[in-house]
Write a structure and sequence with these properties.
alpha/beta, Aspartate Aminotransferase, domain 1, 2 domains, 7-stranded mixed β-sheet
């Protein structure tokens, strides 16, 4: 008889967004015609930029002609796309070999797939509050989770604890949900910790394009020693609006080895076995992101989300409420007022101001008492929501 993966029985119910949907639906049913200001979902609201659309159309036309038609693509990524990514790193002073870049269908897929490289006996360290998929993907694989709490005192960017033993370390910077960004000094301590212990850092850099402070690192490979202990996973979803188009990339240095096995070579073997690659059309569109004009256009879109963030942080400043994020990330993470729980604050915002955000408790127990706003909504809705927030919490 077939034996299913019983690790799925150990998964906690993914109730966060389901519960949010239930509450908002009940409110709308009770208040017919009510308009909600949705600042919860982390999906973009602006379309793909013109340079990407142009490249996608050209790629579609290529597929209509025999001389330019493309069938199967290289499983690890087309050379033109990998070269564009390597050039992007080079502009920031980080040297990446083309063969160290792997195309993916997005960070979410890759964060789960990359676990194929590691033994199930390896423990995974997750810094919380955290993107829930870090925990769930490892539970599905039967891996033990080591939880490291972060909080207001450490700016939600904790230092390694040498008493904690784990072989995999998840770091997301800029962070979802907190919007906090690790400094070079703090990342250096994590890199040294990983090299000393033999651990591997899985560095989620999905939001690096939102960093504006020049002294903050966009990539873990800006840190000395990272090439022997880190894998970087990136996405074009929030950077360039690819949430519905799906394309990203992963960087695995050739120096990264454990127990005589080379992780770059292992990932080549994995991809050439388990995938047929990302389509030519999507890779052409994605490569356009890294052109001079593409960079100019996506930065204009990011600036819209940054203005949304400033509307919200200005409101919180006026109210005297503690928060982090917003400036270098598309999320604003605020302390709930007057000791309210995350869900109590959710209900207050929904009932009194028609604002929908995300309770921090859904990102781990140390997120209780905090609340996340996404800045990906429309500027008009965000401006009204900020005014409503001031009005409500000033009372």
């Amino acid at each position: 008889m077939l034996k299913p993966n019983h690790n799925y029985s150990d998964l906690k119910d993914s109730y966060l967004f389901y519960r949010i949907a239930q509450k908002t639906r009940a409110y709308v049913e009770k208040h017919e015609g009510a308009y909600l200001y949705r600042l919860g979902i982390g999906d973009v609201s602006l379309p793909l930029c013109d340079e990407v659309i142009k490249a996608l159309h050209e790629a579609v036309d290529d597929q209509a002609k025999k001389e330019t038609f493309h069938g199967y693509m290289p499983e690890c990524g087309a050379h033109f796309f990998k070269s564009a990514v390597a050039g992007y790193y080079q502009h920031r002073g980080v040297k990446i070999d083309v063969d160290e870049v792997f195309v993916s269908s997005g960070a979410s897929d890759e964060l789960g797939d990359i676990l194929d490289l590691f033994d199930k006996s390896d423990d995974a360290l997750v810094i919380e509050p955290a993107y829930p998929a870090y925990v769930d993907a490892n539970v599905m694989a039967g891996r033990k989770i080591v939880h490291l709490a972060s909080g207001k005192d450490d700016g939600f960017t904790p230092l390694p604890d040498k008493n904690i033993k784990a072989q995999l370390i998840y770091i997301c910077s800029p962070n979802n949900p907190t919007g906090a960004v690790f400094t070079k000094d703090k990342l250096k301590k994590w890199v040294d910790f990983a090299n000393e212990s033999g651990a591997v850092i899985l560095f989620d850099a999905a939001y690096e394009a939102f960093i504006e402070d020049e002294d903050l690192p966009h990539s873990i490979f800006e840190i000395e020693g990272a090439r022997t202990c880190a894998i970087e996973i990136c996405s074009l979803s929030k950077t360039a609006g690819f949430t519905g188009t799906r394309c990203g990339y992963t960087v695995i240095p050739k120096e990264l080895e454990r127990e005589g096995m080379n992780l770059n070579a292992m990932w080549v073997r994995n991809r050439t076995t388990k995938t047929n690659g990302v389509s030519y059309i999507l890779q052409k569109g994605a490569a356009a992101v890294f052109t001079d004009e593409g960079q100019k256009q996506i930065k204009a879109n990011i600036a819209v989300y940054k203005r949304n963030a400033k509307l919200l942080t200005d409101a919180l400043d006026k109210l005297g409420i503690w928060y982090c994020g917003g400036k270098n990330a598309p999320y604003v993470w605020m302390k709930c007022p007057k000791g309210m729980s995350s869900w109590e604050f959710f209900d207050l915002l929904l009932e009194k101001a028609q604002i929908v955000g995300t309770p921090g408790e859904g990102f781990g127990s140390c997120g209780e008492g905090y609340f996340r706003f996404s800045t990906f909504g429309s500027p008009e809705d965000t401006a009204i929501a900020a005014e409503k927030l001031i009005e409500l919490l000033s009372e």
